[in-house]
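Project standup — Tuesday

K.O.: blocked on the structure for the chain from last sprint. Re-posting the sequence here as requested.
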Amino acid sequence: MVKHQPLQVYEKQVFVSFVTGIYGCRWKRYQRSQDDSSRWECIWFLILCSSFLLLLFWAYFWLVAQNDFNEFNWSVYNRSGEWRDETIPILASTTVGFSYITFLLILALFHISLGQQLNLYWVHKIGVLATLVTTISGVVSVDDIWGDEWDILLVSLQSTAPFLHIGALATVTAISWLVAGYVIACPLPLNFQVMVLLIYIIILLAIYLAPLTFTCPCIMDRHSLKPRPDIIGRRGAPMLAPENTMVSFNRALQHGASSLEADVTISVDGVPFLMRDRTLRRTTDVSKVFPGRQFDDASFFNWTELRSLNAGQWFLESDPYWTVETLSAKDRSRIGNQSVCSLVEMLRLAARANSSALLNIRKPPAEHPRYRSWFMDTLWAVQKAGISQKRVTWTPDTDRGRVRGLQQTTTEKLSVEEIRQRGITSLTLHYGKASHKDIQEYLANNVSVTVYPVNEPWLYSTLWCSGVPSVSSDAPQVLRKVPYPIWLMSQNAYDFIWISSDLVSLAIVIGVFCFQKWRMSGMQNYNPEQIMLSAVVPRPSRDVNIMKEKLIFSELNNGLSSTEELSLYPENGYARYSH
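H.V.: unblocked you, prediction finished:
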């Protein structure tokens, strides 16, 4: 007698093997399970999600902080004393970590959608923890070294918020498939299902209504757009030539700068010269010419000593902006022979180019011999250069009674009343201090506003839409290529896109929940006998291996009697003969 067993069909699950193999090193079928994930694995999934969100924030921060990479390197230099491009290792590690965590999160979501048990491999757990700890350390370090830079996140949202909203909307809508499947098929108590569903609905509604909080200057009528902001060459064009040198200022004028900005220091013999740092170590060869004085204040050198220093070779050797390779041999030779630039030379260049000048004057220390006469030294240089005094603006906002004809600005954020009391007609503000509302208030009261530093097209476009008259930039060659704001949209057009997107998302979410409900109810009402009988239907696909039990019922010539019984037990995958 032969006992018949149902035919068993085993499909090649290549994709499932790939997902579970990489995520949890479970490549074999018997290693996988569709049981509920353990509590610890759920905790690891939450850690993975937290790492992804933190890295997403971290990556976005560095993406928009490209505007201030030079400021970051300068801050690190002031602490360490060594000039290095510290952004390269940060960007490389962020890219690798974000890609790794994103890949693991995608695999985890595939586990959930396929009904597979989460079981993160121990090597990946170490990798996730290492990435999380490294990112947290980076956030703490940046907050310590460069804490003011967090302001750029809020500023960037004025340009990116509409696009981030669409991305968040698409992501939450796609997650509705997993949420619906989990809530409907979850064996846990009803209260837990309601809590998960409630959290998802709150997040969904928050994203739907988020545009109500947006302040985007470029959502405006294009007919209200003001003229293109003037570009001030901040220390010239320091990405193309050494900062505060004649070559740099010439490059800035060649790339459309309408004004020049420079940092002024007074020498020990009363000659105003251009230098950003307190010492000469970074931008000159003072360590070779005066090795014993390389840490001295730059203002304690006389003009003859300053003129003997090379102020261009450092740019060719360090290549701080990765632009040296784009220079011709003639440009490199000219840059390599640059010396420290005097204020008179820069002002004469501005006068010949019919442009104006913005001077950031650093007062000498109290023990400096020109401590009381720095103002007259600077005024003498302006008069000697032959430039109109109405074209020269300087900070700090002091000695106002002695200033006649010269324009003065301040870097402080003042109220309109204080500005009127001091008689100030212009402000030079960091972009983090100049909100859209403040800019509109200043302009309405005839106060000119210059915003610095503006090096990226998105920030330039945002300030253009805000009506800013001028910006100070390290990259005039980049802003020159922005003839129009990157994006400009009327309020009615944006409202239509916003509401349409929300309605489409809502329809998709409702459809997904209804489909998952129908799908789960259909599986529950499915007849188990139909499931068993469907397994015996042969499948013609080449990707399916069919294991059949071929039963041969005949007399054997090897001595087996007709009363022998051949039984086949498929349990455990073994066949057994019994008499």
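K.O.: great, moving the ticket to review. Confidence is low (pLDDT under 50) at residues 526-579. Residues 324 and 526 are 71 Å apart (CA to CA).
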